């Protein structure tokens, strides 16, 4: 079972590369922010799976909740800044 | 060897992985920013909820506390992922990012009303 979770962990790490493509390639700055937001979400998923691998799900779910809070605050701050700054 | 809970957890993990993969495909393939934002936002909520439930299923003992924590993070993401996506879409729309040509319905007023733009001159 742990090996299956490790496989899922590797697949999530590979999917982060897809999001990094959008961050590097994105035609607008909003696409880059969207890619970074998705990478944060993948980090939350990876934290939960790492918790299963290390048998400490209770602790890692707390860390994932904190990371989700930081993700929301950062996304709202960047969106507000880009909205007030005007056109790209 | 493999119990029913482990099989259910594996199925949930595969569902979460499939949703995450589809969100990534949509992020790369869709034509404009708004459709690109639509795909991973939905993959976020479903992927995180199914993977958190899978993690709760496989841990031994003390399941109620971890289940409550997992339900907390699931509810938090279901609440906040649409808020973040809405803020990003609003910023992009008022920032002049045009939708693709196939867009049929555009309900955003051209002049945003009741909005503090930080003292910038209009236009």
Note the topology.
The complex is a heterodimer of chains A (88) and B (123).
Chain A: H1 2-25, H2 29-53, H3 57-85
Chain B: H1 4-29, H2 33-58, H3 63-94
Helix pairs in contact in B: 1-2, 2-3
How is this structure best summarized?
The complex is a heterodimer of chains A (88) and B (123). Chain A is mainly alpha-helical and 88 residues long.
Q: What can you tell me about this protein's structure?
A:
The complex is a heterodimer of chains A (88) and B (123). Chain A is mainly α. Chain A has a single domain (2-85), classed as Helix Hairpins, CATH 1.10.287. Chain A has helices at 2-25, 29-53, 57-85. The mean pLDDT of chain A is 88. Chain B has 123 residues and is mostly helical. Chain B has one domain. Helix content of chain B is 68%, strand content 0%. Chain B contains three helices and no strands. The chains are: A mainly alpha (88), B mainly alpha (123).
What features would you highlight for this structure?
heterodimer, A: 88 residues, mainly alpha, Helix Hairpins, B: 123 residues, 68% helix
N-end to C-end Cα span of chain A: 48 Å
| Helix percent band of chain A | over 70%
How is the biggest beta sheet of chain B arranged?
none
SS class of chain A:
mainly alpha
Q: Could you say how many structural domains of chain A there are in total?
A: 1
- Major beta sheet of chain A, specifics? none
Ranges of chain A where pLDDT stays below 50 over 5 or more residues in a row are none
**H/E order of the elements of chain A?**
HHH
Shape descriptor of chain A: flat
CATH level 1 name of chain A: Mainly Alpha
Beta-strand percentage range of chain A: under 5%
Assign the CATH architecture of chain A. Orthogonal Bundle
Note the beta-strand portion of chain B.
under 5%
What Rg of chain B do the Cα atoms give?
A: 20 Å
Helix count of chain B, per DSSP?
3
Q: Mind telling me the C-alpha Rg of chain A? A: 15 Å
């Amino acid at each position: 079972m742990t090996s299956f979770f490790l496989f899922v962990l590797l697949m999530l790490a590979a999917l982060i590369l897809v999001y990094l493509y959008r961050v590097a390639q994105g035609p607008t700055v909003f696409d880059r922010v969207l890619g970074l937001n998705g990478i944060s979400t993948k980090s939350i998923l990876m934290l939960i799976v790492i918790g299963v691998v290390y048998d400490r799900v209770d602790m890692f779910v707390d860390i994932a909740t904190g990371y989700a809070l930081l993700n929301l605050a950062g996304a709202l701050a960047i969106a507000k800044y880009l909205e007030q700054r005007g056109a790209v | 060897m493999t119990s029913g809970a482990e099989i259910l957890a594996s199925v949930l993990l595969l569902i979460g992985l499939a949703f995450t993969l589809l969100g990534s495909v949509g992020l790369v393939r869709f034509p404009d920013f708004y459709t690109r934002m639509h795909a991973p936002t939905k993959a976020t909520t479903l992927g995180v909820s199914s993977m958190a439930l899978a993690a709760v299923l496989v841990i031994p003992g003390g399941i109620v506390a971890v289940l409550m924590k997992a339900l907390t993070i699931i509810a938090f993401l279901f609440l906040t992922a649409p808020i973040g996506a809405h803020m990003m879409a609003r910023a992009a729309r008022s920032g002049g990012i045009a939708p693709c040509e196939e867009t049929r319905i555009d309900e955003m007023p051209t002049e945003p009303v009741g909005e503090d733009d930080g003292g910038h001159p209009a236009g």
